[in-house]
From TrEMBL:
Pfam families: 2OG-FeII_Oxy, DIOX_N
Taxonomic lineage of the native organism: Eukaryota, Viridiplantae, Streptophyta, Embryophyta, Tracheophyta
Record-given protein name: Fe2OG dioxygenase domain-containing protein
Keywords, sorted A to Z: Iron, Metal-binding, Oxidoreductase, Vitamin C
Residue stretches in coiled coil: none
GO molecular function: L-ascorbic acid binding; metal ion binding; oxidoreductase activity
Domain Fe2OG dioxygenase stretches: 190-290
Family designation: Belongs to the iron/ascorbate-dependent oxidoreductase family.
């Protein structure tokens, strides 16, 4: 049964034991007001003014190096479109359990897959999360129900790809290489884009459960939006930092393949999703990576005698299978390919 179905069964006064996760130390979350997550103005990153562009590129590089996470504002994707995505995705989860079963998928690489937790077959505790996961590029896939959802997702994914392509140019510049370097090396034109909706229903005991555990994302960059409920936390300088994004912004994190490609100069960020007992939180992520058959290894331009290759090469598809078939925990997947 989905978590949503469990919550709506009207018999839930406490969470089932299989959803109880190890407790989180109270002192591990940092609420200090002087910790400021970087904010990048997309309009300046793509500006014709060399000074503005240079300053924004520098900030982008610093954010990828020091945080692996930043907010993106003035990106050109309208708030109305984001709201439409949330409404459409919520309507998918409002389908009956029987209707959603049509889209469960049978294998980890199925282009349309919905379910609960992350990988119940290998997890000691289940996570308070239902999901819809779609492979939307280079070939677009989406569920046929409810009517109109496919068109909404396709338009949004096209917009988010355009934003990501410009960001990757900025990342290349920040590394001191030609701006199309990552595009060419990672075959971005035929790159993999995965669309994921995370649905976190209200939880009667949020202190005992997790939406998603601490983990990193695969790929190069993930663009995330959420409805008006916070829950994301990123790990920074040994503390968990709650994320409260500005209005109409993207939350963006660097993924494992950015860390591999840059030979560890830019780190993938460890993050987690917490739940609440008030209302349903929905987040929508688009993960952008190379083409499935691209072998990702450290860039030769970033290998020196002092910094030899830190990771072995692996195809993007094999890495996805490695991550999806194992328990989700911190950088455990990336650790498997460290040299």
């Amino acid at each position: 049964m989905s978590v949503k179905g469990l919550v709506e069964s009207n018999s839930l006064s406490s969470i089932p034991s299989k959803y109880v996760c190890p407790p989180i130390p109270e002192d591990s979350v940092c609420y200090e007001s002087d910790i400021v997550i970087p904010t990048i103005d997309f309009s300046k990153l793509t500006s014709c003014d060399p000074r503005e562009r240079s300053e924004a590129t520098q900030l982008l590089g610093d954010s990828c190096r020091d945080w692996g996470f930043f907010f993106l504002i003035n990106h050109g994707v309208s708030e109305a479109m984001m709201d439409e995505v949330f409404r459409g995705c919520e309507s998918f989860f409002n389908l009956t359990e029987e209707e959603k079963k049509e889209f469960e998928g049978r294998s980890l690489m199925d282009p349309i897959r919905c379910g609960t937790s992350f990988n119940p077959d290998v997890e000691k505790s289940l996570f308070w999360r239902d999901y819809l996961k779609l492979l939307v590029h280079p070939r677009f896939h989406a569920p046929s129900k409810p009517p109109g959802l496919s068109e909404i997702i396709e338009e949004y994914c096209k917009k988010s790809r355009q934003v990501t392509e410009e960001l990757l140019k900025g990342v290349s510049r920040s590394l001191g290489v030609e701006e199309n370097y990552i595009h060419e090396k990672m075959n971005v034109r035929l790159g993999t884009q995965v669309f994921v909706v995370n649905y976190y229903p209200p939880c009667p005991s949020p202190e005992l459960a997790k939406g998603l555990p601490e983990h990193t994302d695969h790929g190069l960059l993930t663009l995330l939006i959420q409805n008006d409920l916070d829950g994301l936390q990123v790990h920074h300088d040994g503390k968990w930092v709650p994320v409260c994004p500005p209005p109409n912004s993207f939350m963006i994190n660097t993924g494992d393949h950015m860390e591999i490609l840059t030979n560890g100069k830019y780190k993938s960020v460890v993050h987690r999703a917490m739940v609440n007992n008030r209302a349903t939180r929905i987040s929508v992520g688009t993960a952008h990576g190379p083409s499935l058959d691209t072998v990702v290894n450290p860039s030769s331009e970033l290998i020196t005698e002092a910094h030899p290759p830190a990771y072995r090469g692996i195809t993007y598809k094999d890495y996805l299978l490695l991550q999806q078939s194992n328990p989700l925990h911190a950088k455990s997947c990336l650790d498997r390919i460290r040299i």
